[in-house]
Sequence to fold (635 residues):
Amino acid sequence: MNKTLEAYEAVVGGAVIRQLRMLGERLKGLTVLHVNSTSEGGGVAEILTWMVPLMRDLGLDAHWKVIRGTPAFFSVTKSIHNGLQGKPVTLTRKDWDTYYGVNAENCGELRDSLGKADVIVIHDPQPAPLLTLCPNRKGKRIWRAHIDISRPFRGVWKMLRPFVEKADASVFSMSKFAQALPHPQFIISPSIDPLSDKNMDLPKTELEEVRERFDLDPMRPLLVQISRFDRFKDPVGVIQAYRMVRRVLPVQLVLAGGGATDDPEGKEILDEVRDAAGDDPDIHVLLLPPDAHRTVNALQRLADIVIQKSTREGFGLTVTEALWKGKPVIGGDVGGIQLQVTDHYTGYRVDTPEGAAHRIRFLLHHRDKMVQMGATAREYVRENFLLTRNLREYLTLFTCVLRGQHRGTIAV
Amino acid sequence: MNPFEIKDCALLTRMSGLPAAVNLRELRDRIASCHRDVLYHHFCETPLTPSFDLPDYRNDFAVWAKSRLGDDVLAERLGMVDPYSVEAMEDLRAATLEIIDERLSEVTMVPWARPGKELYLMQAVTIVFDTGDRITHPDELAAAIGRITNSSIYFHVLEARRRNTPREDDFSAWLRGGEEDWSHYIRAIESIDVTFFTLPELRRKMIEVLTSARGPGGKGDRA
Fold:
């Protein structure tokens, strides 16, 4: 069921909700069209699932359309996605024709919606050619890149750039993810929904059920890393850190995440992790289904310390989730973790398993510090990384783009 | 006296278009050539951006000098630059460049940041709007500050110092314009060193000093 803004008042306070209503009032009736490539699964669909109803709740005429494609199209867009993130890929002229052709077909189907919208937000590269198609529409066009394209594979960026540079503005999640483009590039950090299954408060009975289900000892400290089994998340490094701590403290470790067993690399890494864990009964390697949001929520809440020892990271929303639950985070000094984890205040940033082990031991010996960090962390997320802030920045973006003013102060 | 109009603002950051700085010399070049909005953003708008509330220093340049260049001397000097004490942004630019030039003349090797720790030069666009909320009497100030957003506090207390002549917050300017003497409230607000508070802390502090200045009967200590 769609939530209304008032549902968030208890979390963020009445002033924040009133502010959103006032901004929304000034954009009332504005037709906004979001376009992406999937209606479920993945971060973008997750964002649009809450954003579109909340924009409507604010009085905007917000819509969400999903482009349709063939398996060949999605195979090409997967390669484009990888290429934008720096992986060398080979795409033929035929592949690019498929990419453009499917978008042209979708443009035909979406022509009415694209024509009527005052603001069109194209999410990620899959529907990017729509930025150049349907030339007679009246609306402003925004390209929202959810991925890090700072070091793209040149061949892919060269082909994609002509589409995205036709936008009136683009949006990136972090400044370090952006590319130089001939229009204003705004920064909007991702956010979490505090009332979603992954972040809502859970009853104690449910936490205990999860603790029992995974055979976790309530009397001993628990370290948790939630992330897919990917080399950049350094799960083996986390096990090394755990072993260094285990010599002196009776800790337990949970490494939990989704991981498609049909993904050859994911399977390989999962095998490596299981090998590294060996027969240690205090290392729990959990392969969770993609919809195990409440289980992830419970594991984060059961943790004493949450770890995210990535060696490369996007924004790192799992860190945001942990901070929201009042947990200190020990994370790699990369990507969005740098924005969220500050030494001594919300956790520690580390570069090595040794660094992680050192900080874990320090915190487990200073419980009062952990409580203090947890409280700071929760307030930090409340102020900066909840969906209400995300929504406010979109409303600000629409106002700027519609007025064509991209710097200074705009009185509305 | 006219009612005080409570305004609010929403800020959105954007890339400045300048390349990221990877060492102190590049930072100097960027500061020398950037738009004044870039300077203003990194010195003054940090309380409204998703950055940690309690950094060692209150401007991005000092924080970067300490955490990424590892230059504590430079960080300490940049950290004491008060962006609200200068007449114009160009004065702020000159003062900042002076500090950096002095440091460059002292060091034998130009401090540099590791890959991934560059400084991205940013700026922002801010939307300002009338909330419709009004303060009709100075004795209501503390209560009103308790119900407004952090961004409203920013707009009326910090951003106001850029707009107003003399450089003061909007509340003091309003109180000064009244026919009666509200100097006890003005003194109370002036007693706060705004640089070293986060916005929620600033709100608490303002409520505290204004409540104390009001006194139980509402007339305050006008002695």
Remarks:
- The two ends of chain B are 22 Å apart (CA to CA).
- Chain B has a mean pLDDT of 91.
- Chain B is about 45% helix and 10% strand.
- Chain B touches chain A at residues 8-15, 17, 20, 35, 37, 50-55, 116, 118, 120, 122-129, 131-132, 147-152, 200 (CB under 8 Å).
